[in-house]
Design goal:
The chain has about 200 residues and is an alpha+beta fold. It contains six helices and nine strands; from the N terminus they run H-E-E-H-H-E-H-E-E-E-E-H-E-E-H. The mean pLDDT is about 90.
């Protein structure tokens, strides 16, 4: 895997038979890592901080399910490579999870523009999230998508502060209809610190 390049290439993709043989072990390993890459914020939002490994597994699973071959692989790489952190950022998939479809639709209808209200806070600084380009997160009617992809760009100084053992990091959503914050657990902070080069 080309983790140093922070980009999945066709050469990183396992043949179907090999992935099928190794799938259980690979999934166990990466799912275990993902436990220290998530933060729940309020009752409905979860930030899943992505990495090369989480995106590689996602691509492999999509290929396994859809069996679209080389043409599908091109689309999957185009979709998931931008979500791999590039050394000076953290990248999160933010999911608003409500089981009841009617309740979820009502909630999301009040959440338009939420992609512009996500931030990481540390030492009195706010690192504002930037929505993944080329995707519409809020409909013309003002309804938010239940899945958001957000980049948190860091300066070199902020990376040093993030890595400091005593630094407390808060994950926040500041939308008027959903204003919640959670302190990032230390194991999550330690895991995410490895995303910086």
């Amino acid at each position: 895997m080309s983790a140093i390049e922070r980009k999945i290439t066709p050469a990183d993709i396992l043949p179907d038979a090999e992935y099928a043989r190794r799938r259980d072990d690979l999934r166990k390993t990466i799912i275990a890592e993902k436990k220290n890459r998530r933060v729940e914020v309020g009752p409905f939002a979860t930030f899943y901080f992505e990495s090369y490994e989480t995106m590689w597994l996602q691509v492999m699973e999509m290929l396994r399910i859809e069996k679209g071959g080389a043409e599908q692989l091109k689309d999957e790489l185009q979709a998931y490579n931008p979500l791999i952190p590039q050394g000076r950022e953290l990248v999160a998939t933010v999911m608003f999870e409500i089981d009841d479809p009617a309740r979820r639709a009502t909630f999301l209808a009040t959440l338009g523009g939420v992609e512009n209200h996500m931030e990481l806070r540390m030492g009195g600084q706010a690192i504002k999230g930037k929505a993944e380009r080329d995707l519409d997160y809020t409909s013309a009617e003002g309804k938010a998508s239940s899945v958001q992809f957000v980049h948190f760009p860091f300066t070199a100084e902020q990376i040093v502060k993030f890595r400091a053992p005593v630094a407390e990091i808060a994950v926040a959503i500041t939308h008027p209809s959903y204003s919640h914050m959670a302190i990032m657990p230390q194991p999550v902070k330690e895991s995410l610190a490895k995303d910086f080069s």
